[in-house]
Structures are given as C-alpha cells and as structure tokens.
Amino acid sequence: MIRDSFIPEAVVLAAGTFPTHPIALEYLRSTPFLVCCDGAAVGCIRRGFRPDAIIGDGDSLPSSWKRKYGSILYQIAEQDTNDLSKAMRFLLLRGYRRVVILGATGKREDHTIGNISLLADYMHQQFDVRMVTNHGVFIPVQDTQTVESRVGQKVSIFNIDAHEMSSEGLKYPLYDLTKLWQGTLNESLGKTFTIQAKGTYLLFLSFS
Description:
By secondary structure, the protein is of the alpha/beta class. The chain folds into two domains: 10-134, Thiamin pyrophosphokinase, catalytic domain (Rossmann fold, 3-Layer(aba) Sandwich), CATH 3.40.50.10240; 143-206, no CATH class. It is 25% helix and 31% strand. The chain has five helices and 13 strands. It has helices at 22-30, 38-46, 63-68, 83-93, 109-124; strands at 10-13, 34-37, 53-56, 73-75, 98-102, 128-132, 136-142, 145-148, 154-159, 163-168, 186-187, 192-198, 200-206. The strands form two sheets. The chain has a ten-stranded mixed beta sheet with strand order 4-3-2-1-5-6-7-13-9-11, sandwiched between helices. The radius of gyration is 18 Å and the shape is elongated.
C-alpha cells in the first residue's frame, strides 16, 4: 500500500520554485540529509537552511560561495544528466533510497515536465521517491497498488507503459490510458483507492 505518511532518509532541493506549502517546508526542515542542486543552493542558504551537499557543475554558484562551501560542494562536469539526476546518483552511491524531491517544478515548463518524467527512472533504480510540490505530490508506481487518500482528494494518473488498467474507489473509472491527459482530474471517493495495472505510471495527489 502507498501510505499517506512518508518519512524520507534524504531530501533533494532542485532549482525550480522554492517550497512554500507547509508540508513541503516541513520536509525541508526535518530531513536528516539535505542535498541542493547548485542552482538552488544560494536561495536555500539565504533562507536559513544548511545543505549537507551541493551537487552540480558549479556554474550557478558565485566564486565566493564555491570557496565558502567548498567542503560540501561536489562538482560534476558531465552534461548527460541534469543536476537533479546527479543529486539522486550521489544519494544512491551513499545508500539513500527513501527520498523526497522539492523545488523540481515551476519556472520553465520544459524543466518541470522533464523532472517529473524522471521519477519513473528513479523508481526503477530502486528509489522509494516522492516529488512534493506546492500543490501536491507525484509518486511513481509499478503495477497494482492501493493508495491511502481522503474523500474528495483530487487524483491524476499519467500512464507511462502500463496496460490492463482499471480502478476501484475513484469517481471516474480507469481504463488503458493512451494520452497524457486522459487520467487527469479524477477524485477519490474514500480513505483508499486501488489502481489495477501491469506496468509503470505516475500518480498526482493534491493537498487541497
């Protein structure tokens, strides 16, 4: 079952819109290990948070900040992956698996779509991962799952490669989705709902 409560081992702060929702901020305040993509580091530190690691090619950090925070700066020059994936690889190599990603949406829409789509890759790399925004949470899912919810909670499903899809406990019955928009704007009817499927898809659960 996918439970409503999720306690991560680490948080990654990306360089999109800074978290403002109380749930997102609580993850940021309470995490035992905080990794900042380098484009997020300045804003994070200026707001009073102290990262345990700063990951990226370093282009977004002023020279004075590179010197000041050199002990926690891990510069990775390769351009085959974005800074979010570099941060996730950093955590993977150190044994972190339960991860919340913050600040990965907002600003440029192409970055937002790219970051959300990476969640399925991270799941297949054996991460238990959530992407928390200022409006809700994205969760990558494999096969049939029952999800803790609440009556009236807004739910969207984005199919990646799943088939034989159906649902219990959603306002609009699920079917094999072939377009990204088809599973959006659904609603939970109870304290849980179940999606039957074979394959990978993304869930979005709203806070409101």
